[in-house]
Amino acid sequence: MDVDDSKPQATVGNAVHGDVPGTLVQSGAIRGDVHIHQHRPADPRGAPDRRVREADPIVLGVHPAIDAVGGPDVLPGYVLRDLDFGPAGLRTLLTAAVTTDGGFIVLVGAPASGKSRSAHQAVRVVCPDWWIVDPDPAELSDPRFADTIRPRTIVWLDDLKRYLLGPGSVSGPDLSRLTAAGRDTVLISTLSRQDYTSMTGPRDKSDSKSRRARDALSRASIVDISRKWTAAELERAGDRGELIRYAVGMANENYGPTEILAAAPQLADFWEHDEDPYPRAVLTAAVDAVRLGRTAPLSAELLRDGAMDYCGVVARGRAPADWFESSVARLVEPIFGSASLLEPVGGDRIGDLTGYAVHSWLDQYAVHKRRREPIAASLWHAVVADAPHAKDLERLAEEADRRGFLRLRHDILREGSRRGDESATVSLLVWAAENGDDDALRRLRDLADEGWRHAADGVVLALARRGGEDALKQVRDYIESNDQEGYHVVLYVHALAERADDFALAELTRLAEGGNGYAGVHQAHLLAERGTSEAIARLRQLAAEDSYAVWPLTYWLARKADDTAVAELATRAAAGNEDARVFLTVASAQRGDPGAMDALREEAFDPTSIACEELARLLAARGDDAALDELRELVREGYDQATKHLVRVLTGPDAVAELRTLAEERDPHAEKRLAEILAADEDEFRAMDELVREVHAGNAAAVEQLYSHYADGDPAQLAHLRRYGLDLDGRPAGAWPFRFDPP
Q1: Of the ranges 24-33, 618-627, 677-686, which one carries the lowest mean pLDDT score?
Q2: Distance, CA of 328 to CA of 444 (rounded, Å)
Q3: Region labeled Disordered — which residues (predicted)?
Q4: 189 near 122, Cβ under 8 Å?
Q5: Parallel, antiparallel, or unpaired for β 342-346 and 353-358?
Q6: CA angle 129, 131, 136 (to 5 degrees)
Q7: H or E element at residue 16
Q8: Between 483 and 196, where is the model more confident?
Q9: Could you tell me which of 305, 283, 297 has the C-alpha nearest to residue 370?
Q10: CB 633 within 8 Å of CB 661
C-alpha cells in the first residue's frame, strides 16, 4: 500500500482520495494494489504563506512602543545592538544557518530587553525572501508538522517556555526533525534569562519536563541580550528618532531603554501602588497562576473564580455587579498606547478570545515579588478546574507536593483519575501504597495484572520508597516472579544504592554477578564509600575484571591522596587510564600543588566533567574569598557542580540573600542549604515564619524542616505530618481520608 498526497480528489477503482472520516471498509474482492491518496487538511493557523519581509512584527510578538512623544509609528527605528555582530553574533549565526542546512537560535535576556525585535530585524535583513511560520505548541509537538514546512522557512517560536514546558512539551528530537539535513529550516526563538537559568540549572532528577527542556536547549546556539545598552549602542541610538532619544534619556539604574519603551515603569507602578481591590485581585490571581506553571491563556472563568480569596470580605461584600468586567477592562487598557497589564489572546478567527496573558515584563517582575507569598485556595481550585490537559493536572499535583499540601495533591490526582488519566490513578495509588496502605498496593497489583501500562511501575516504585528490607525483598520477588526487566530493575538498584547497608551491598553484588552492569557500578561506588581495607581489596579485584569499577577506585585513591595512592594513580595513568590521569591531578592539587590546580582549571572546560566537579570541591574546601569568588564565577557560567559545593560553605544570615537568589531558580542544593540555615535560627518564631514563606515558594526542603520543627522530636507526630502534610496556610493538617474512585 502506498500513500500519495499529490493527486487531486477522485475515486478510481480501489483508490480512495480526499479526507476520510471514521472507518473505511471495502466489501467484495480486492484485485490489484490498494492505493490511499491522502489529502492533508489545511493548517488551522494558515500555511506558511508569508514571506519574512511581509510578516507583521507585532503579530510575531514584538511589543509596540509607548506613544510618549506622539507620532504614527508603532515601532521606533531599530538600534543596532552589539549582539548583532561578531563571530557568535545573531546575524553571523543566522547567515550561517540559512546558507547551510538550517539551525536553531535562541535569544536569551530579561523581559522587554529587545529579544523579539532583534530577532525580527535579523531575519528581515538576512533572509527577507524566506517563508515564516509561527506555530502554536500543539502544532509543533505533532511529528507531522515537519512535513508541512516548505524549504527555506523560518519557524518563529516567541517565548520558548510555552513550547518546552507547556502542554505537549516539545522535545529536542521534535526540534531536530525540523532542522534535519536538507530541510533548509531555521528556528528562531526567545527566552527570558530567568527561564533559561531555571531550565539549564540543576533540578530534581524526577523532573522530566526540565530534562527535556535542557536537552532541547543544548541543541541551540544561544545569543545573550542585555537590558542595558553599551556606550556603542547609545551612540548608534542618536539618529534613530525622537522616541529613542526619549527612552535613552529616561533610562536609569532600574530600567534600560527598551524597558522604557515597553512601559515597564508604569507596569511596576500599578503593581506596587494601585489600591483598587478588584483589578488587583484579578491581576494577582493571574500572576499566581503563572507561578504554578500555567502557560496556556488564562480564561475569564479562571480569573473570576481565582480572584475571590485575593479580595477581603468587605471588598467582596461591596463589589458592584460588573466588578470583573470593569477590572478586566482596566487591566487590558493600553498604557501610553502600548503595554497592557493583561494582554488579550486571540484565537484562530477575528474576534475569538481564548483568554489573557500577563505582560511578559510584569510576569517576571510580579512573580519575583510574590515568590514567597501564599497562593489563595480560590486560585488553586480555579486552575485545577480550568486545567485543559492531563499534563496540567500532573504539574499542579507536583506543585502541591513541593509545598507539602498533600490533601490538595490527593484531590488534584483524584480529578485527573476522574477524567480518565491512567498515570494520575497510578500516582494516587503509589502515594497511598508507599505510605503503608496495603489496599492501595493490592489495587496496583490488580491493575498491573489487567495490563495497565504504569501500574507495574507503580508497584515497584511504592515498595522501593517504603525502603525497609522487607519492602525491598518484595520488590525483588515481584520483579523475578513477573520476569520484569529494564526500568523496574533500575528502580530497585536505586533503592538499594540509597539504603547502602549490608543487604543492599549483597543484592547489588548478586545483580552485578548476574550481568547487570548498572548494579555493578553502584556496587563499586558503595565499596569506595565504605573505604575499609576489605572493601577496597574487593574494589581492586572488580577493577581488574570490569572497567566500570575503575572510576570508583581512582576516585577513592584521589580522596586518600597519600604517597601510596598517588603512586598507584600514576601507574594507572601511565598505562593510559584517563580517569586515573585526572584524579592524579586532583590528588596533587589536594596535596597543595598550585600547578595542579591550574592544570585542573584547564581540564574543567566541560561542566559535566570529573575535573569540574573536583575543582569545585577543592575550591570549596579552601574556602577563602578568592576561592569562593571563583566558585561563584563557575556558577554564573552554568557549572552545576559548582553550585552544589558553593552552597555547602555558605553560612549564617549573610548567606541567606545569596541562597535565595539561587533557590529562586529551584536549584535543589541551594533550596536545601537555605532551609537548613533558616531552621537553625535561634528565634524559633522567626524560623517558623521564614520556613512557611519558603514553603509557599515551593521549596521542598523547607517542608521537611518545617515537619521537624512541628514534630519537635516526636516520631509519631513526624509520621503524621509526612502522611497528611500541611494546610494551605503552612500549618499541620489534620487527618483526612484517602479516597480512590476506580475509573
Answers
A1: 24-33
A2: 46
A3: 1-21
A4: no
A5: antiparallel
A6: 150
A7: strand 16-17
A8: 196
A9: 283
A10: no
Beta strands in 347-392, from DSSP E residues, in sequence order: 353-358
Strand order through the sheet with 102-109: 50-51, 131-133, 153-157, 185-192, 102-109, 221-224
Cβ–Cβ < 8 Å for 653, 674: no
The Cα 421–Cα 426 span in angstroms is: 9
- Per-residue pLDDT band for 133 (boundaries 50, 70, 90) equals very high
Helix/strand number for the chain, H first, E second? 39, 11
> Mind giving me the DSSP string for 90-156?
HHHHHHHHHTTTEEEEEEEESTTSSHHHHHHHHHHHH-TTSEEE---HHHHHSTTGGGGPPSSEEEE
Please report the DSSP string for 275-326 in residue order: --HHHHHHHHHHHHHHHTT--SPBPHHHHHHHTGGGS-HHHHHH--TTHHHH
Pairwise CA distance, residues 259 & 112, whole Å: 5
Query: Which are the contacts of 69, defined by CB distance < 8 A and separation ≥ 6?
Result: 242, 243, 246
Residue that has been written with the C-alpha cell 590546580 in this structure: 597
- Segment 216-235 mean pLDDT: 92
Give kind and range of the element (H or E) at residue 35.
strand 35-37
DSSP annotation string for 177-237 = HHT-TT--EEEEEEEEHHHHHHHHS---TT-HHHHHHHHHHHTSEEEE--SSPPHHHHHHG
pLDDT of residue 267: 93
Euclidean distance between the first and final Cα of the chain, in Å? Answer: 39
pLDDT at 53 over 70: yes
The C-alpha cell of 118 is what?
532583534
**pLDDT for 3 beyond 60:** no
**What type of residue is 464?**
A
Residue 684 scores a pLDDT above 70: yes
Q: Taking a C-beta distance cutoff of 8 angstroms, is the pair 127, 53 a contact?
A: no
Q: Which three cell numbers stand for residue 25?
A: 471498509
What Rg value do the Cα atoms of the chain yield, rounded?
29
How do residues 531-552 score in pLDDT, each as one tens digit? Answer: 999 999 999 999 888 788 899 9
**Residues 6+ away with beta carbon under 8 Å from 166:** 137, 295, 296
Tell me what the mean pLDDT of segment 607-611 comes to: 80
Q: For residue range 582-595, what is the model confidence (pLDDT) as tens digits?
A: 999 999 999 988 89
Whether 220 has a pLDDT exceeding 80, the answer reads yes
Q: Is 672 helix (H, G, I), strand (E, B) or coil?
A: helix
Residue 221 contacts residue 105 (beta carbons within 8 Å)? yes
Higher-confidence residue of 181 and 384: namely 384
- What is the C-alpha separation between 29 and 31, in angstroms, rounded? 6
DSSP assignment string, 418-470: HTT-HHHHHHHHHHHHHTT-HHHHHHHHHHHHTT-TTHHHHHHHHHHHH-SHH
Q: Between these two residues, 241 and 528, which has the higher pLDDT value?
A: 528
Which tens digit of pLDDT belongs to each residue from 401-450? 999 999 999 999 999 998 888 889 999 999 889 888 889 999 999 998 88
d(CA 464, CA 522): 16
Q: Mean pLDDT over residues 470-488, rounded?
A: 81
Relative orientation angle of helices 469-481 and 455-466, to the nearest 10 degrees = 160
Please give the Cα distance from 527 to 500 (Å, whole number): 10
Rounded distance, CA 157 to CA 730, Å? 39
The torsion angles phi and psi of 162, rounded to 5 degrees, stand at -60, -35
Phi-psi region of 62 (alpha: psi -120 to 50; beta: other; left: phi over 0): beta
Residues 6+ apart with CB under 8 A from 78: 117, 121, 240
DSSP run (H or E) holding 51 = strand 50-51
Average of per-residue pLDDT across 712-741: 92
